[in-house]
Here is the input.
Amino acid sequence: MCEKIRWGFVRRALLKIMGVPNFEGLSRLSEKVARMESQLSTSGKKKSKKTKNTKTVYRRVLLADTESKNYDLLRKAVPSSFELKKVKDWNEIFIEHEKAYVPLVVIDLALMGPEGVKNIQRLKLKNPKIKIVALSSYLNQNLTQAMPNGLKFSSILQKPLQARTLKEKLGKFF
Here is the structure.
């Protein structure tokens, strides 16, 4: 058996659920909804205008080094159009590589770790044009010849870094 639906009761229940006082009719409710929709659409337009104008491509040079003093020297050698970001391990290198265009990674050989060769190959697979510069405190001819296959460094620099040589060596990568 079908009972007759009391629409007035249903309407009041819905209005109460929605937080609208009983005395407001449906026409006032629809006006309120229309106002809210227009406010939402205009605020959405304002936000989209802002994001369109501020869209920039970030270009970053990554430094993975055990010594903090090299950051200042590297900042002078890297063009100001590039952000210099200090990272502490391979995970951060890959995270930053996903966020921005990274043409150059400067890494201390002490931070390479056992997975260094695999990580360099993985980085080069993602970006074949990336340049990797190694830093070493103990650099000699035997060390450079003993590098395992897959360690394709664009350059190897000896610490302590000198501002002039750093600018010369890194200048060719930009």
Remarks:
- The longest strand covers residues 101-108.
- The chain has two domains: 8-52, 59-171.
- Residues 26-53 form the longest helix (28 residues).
